[in-house]
Amino acid sequence: MDGDQFRQVFWNLFVNATEAMNGEGTITVGAVATGDAPDARGPQPAVITVTDTGSGMDDEELRMLFEPFRSTKPGGTGLGVAMVYRIIETHGGRIRVSSEKGRGTMFTIALPGE
Question: Whole-model pTM?
Answer without folding.
Answer: 0.84
